Amino acid sequence: MxxxxxxxxxxxERLDTGRIPRPRDAVDDGPSTGDGGTALTHQVLKSxxxxxxxxxxxxxxxxxxxxxxxxxxxxxxxxxxxxxxxGLLHTDGSxxxxxxxxxxxxxxxxxxxxxxxxxxxxxAPYDAETARLDALLRDFGDAEWHxxxxxxxxxxxxxxxxxxxVAGVISHxxxxxGLVSAALGLDDPLGSGEKPPSPTGRTETYWSSAYHPxxxxxxxxxxxxxxxxxxxxxxxxxxxxxxxxxxxxxxxxLEDSLLERAFECWVHGGDIADAVDYPYEPPSAPxxxxxxxxxxxxxPATLAGRRRAGLAGPARGLVTAGAPxxxxxxxxxxxxxxxxxxxxxxxxxxxSPDHTVAQVALDGVEFCRLVAGHxxxxxxxxxxxxxxxxxxxxxxxxxxxxxL
Length: 404
Fold this sequence. Notes:
This protein is an alpha+beta fold and about 400 residues long. The radius of gyration is 40 Å and the shape is elongated. The protein is built from 15 helices and 10 strands. A 4-stranded mixed sheet has the order 8-7-9-10. It has a two-stranded antiparallel ribbon with strand order 1-2. The chain has 3 domains: about 5-90, no CATH class; about 120-280, Up-down Bundle (Four Helix Bundle (Hemerythrin (Met), subunit A)); about 295-404, Nonspecific Lipid-transfer Protein, Chain A (2-Layer Sandwich), CATH 3.30.1050. The protein has helices spanning about 5-20, 40-45, 50-55, 60-70, 75-90, 100-110, 125-135, 140-145, 165-185, 200-205, 220-235, 255-275, 285-310, 365-370, 390-400; strands spanning about 30-35, 40, 150-155, 160-165, 245, 250-255, 325-335, 340-345, 355-365, 385. InterPro entries: Anti_sigma_zinc_sf, DinB/YfiT-like, MDMPI_metal-binding, Znf_put. This is Zf-HC2 domain-containing protein.
């Protein structure tokens, strides 16, 4: 019916769209011959259908496949399905990633979980210990917040005690942490106006003020204060660790002050855990080592102060600045342990293993309990050797580092 123009137009449209002519009813599984005269089997031509649908065949292969499709109904149907599937791939679209994709993904992630600020290594113990204590407090009920806690420290050559509650301990930490806040120009929990300069005076003032409700409501201000301190020192950059934090009669660099606050947070976390009969582990070994090192560095000046007050034996060695003088070998064993050489005669002297007159050996956690005033000096050392007076002076000096 070559004279039927309408029918010819429809056939051409079908061929242009799929390039698949109407198959014959019979299936010819014999070899097909491309334009180059190479015979291709049915199996080979069937395997080329995917490449043909993607227009990835050579000219000879395309001709052979299309010739085969005119005689194989099953392959013709498969070819139509493959060509329709290829149309869904939108191969005409760009495969390049949207340049704004990374920004949108990061924005979405940060919206769900804010990025963690890199914390300076010297602030990491404070960050860790406040987080541990906060985790302990999280599920406390009213009974736990009112549980009695006995705080212990060393004062006037003997152990001192003060009874408070779990809420009172958190208020104590808030008041003393306020020294660091004030040094950084942040809000002081004691408010504006004249405030006692010492940690003990600040605590007594805070306990007697309206800022200290003896309930669970003390947790959130302490928690927010600790987060703000960590955030502030993390953003402050280099040099902030040298900022001086006054403690009344003495001052510490911010770097040491936050370490001291981490130590007290751990000690009082243990006091709280004891009050509610809950286990509480020591800090990690690296953090515990830092705490022990701080106490060891403070011992020469503390010992000199006790000597001036008549509470320690006289200096016996050379006291020239930079001179070695006499030393005590402090050997701390176990978790966080190490070796320190404590200058006995002057804070300006340098401890040296060559001028050791005594040695004290004890466990790391036990040494920290001594520094916290939780262990009497006469009961602290597991091993002692050498000058008895020097040993006694150092142990009592370590205990006198404690306070309310």
